[in-house]
Amino acid sequence: MPDVFAATAGSSQVSDRVSRQLLYAQKLMDQKKLQETQKRLIEMLEKNRLHDYEAAVVYQTLGYVYAENNDYKNTIKAFEKSLGYDVLSTKVQQSLRLNLGQLYLSLGDYKKGTSILEQWRLGEQAHGKNGKKSDHQIHQLLAIGYYHQQRYKESLPHLEQVIDNAEQPNKSLYQLAVAIHFELSLYNEAVTLLKRTLKLFPQEKDFWRQLAYVYRELDQATSAVATMSLAYQAGLLNTDDVLLLARLYLSQQVPYKAAELIQREIENGTVSINAESVFLLARSWQQARELDKAASSYATLSRLQKNGKAKFQQAQVYLAMQQWKSAAIALESALDKGLDSNKGRAYLLLGVARYELNQLDLAKRALKMATKINSVKNQALQWLHLVQSSQEEQNALKF
Questions:
Q1: What is the rounded distance in angstroms from the CA atom of residue 163 to the CA atom of residue 196?
Q2: CA-based max dimension of the chain
Q3: Sequence-ordered list of residues with C-beta below 8 angstroms from that of 301, at least 6 positions apart, any chain
Q4: What is the pTM of this model?
Q5: How confident is the model at residue 22 (pLDDT cuts 50, 70, 90)?
Q6: pLDDT tens-digit map of 102-120
Q7: How many whole angstroms separate alpha carbon 293 and alpha carbon 280?
Q8: Kindly report the CA angle at 316 between 315 and 321, in degrees rounded to 5?
Q9: How many CB atoms lie within 10 A of CB 159?
Q10: Rounded distance, CA 387 to CA 371, Å?
């Protein structure tokens, strides 16, 4: 706390009586008797006829006493009273404004805090006092204050000043800068910032993820994949990140890499066996035309799901391999477990599989079920006609 007593006790603007009382208050403060100091100063305001300068000094002093007691709401009130008289020296009033702005920010009143700190800056500029230390501190306070008001365009220049002139890089400030770039959709600028940030904090996982995110927002999928791949090689990716990298591989038409990645990380224990990871694995093997592996993955997925969706997907893989019997078994299982949107198509494909197995009665039964569903009715009728024709031909050959 500034030694306001010594600075004012002997001032010609303070009467001897008030000067003695202030000196006595200082003794109490030195003895850490804060409550008694506070009481004395309030009595001075209530019982003495103080002129403006004396009142401003007492309120200033009282504010520091409240601050010592961590009573910041009353500190603010006292400092505002002192400033209201507008009689103290410019240096003292600037000091009060600086403290007042910081107090408002600490209490979450960011609008009032930034407003007062801007007043402080104007005062410093008017008197040619732009010290590097104080300037750095104010830029940081204003950056945070404006950020909390969602005034990102005003926050960013102050934050850039802090980052550019900091003696040591501060990770939290870079995190804030990245967040502001995202809020303002400054993605090209964010790439530059994140590259700079990763040189300073190469082991920080979030910055790698954010750089990949920015590249995706800029439709630069190749760069997004390269970024996540580097992070993977450095051992910085968690389960979600691994699955994201797999999806990026799929988007770049390299499904085999996606499947290998998921399979490897499942075996390593990084990726858990659940519906999300197994579905992505099955889809990756399927797109890579590793159909046996895809069918096996869909079988695993089916055990994790209550409905028949995975079995239906597995059946389509078997159909692509012309493994009609396995396809028919998978389709019947899918229908037994329950399908919503694909029920009609499942009956249709089951009819096709049974036809290919020359199980014509079973094929007719499945296709008749398919004709009851509008989305596949026409196809089902065509196949049903084909099945009936085949039956007629077979029957004719018997005679």
A1: 11
A2: 136
A3: 275, 278, 279, 282, 310, 313
A4: 0.77
A5: confident
A6: 999 999 999 999 999 999 9
A7: 12
A8: 95
A9: 23
A10: 14
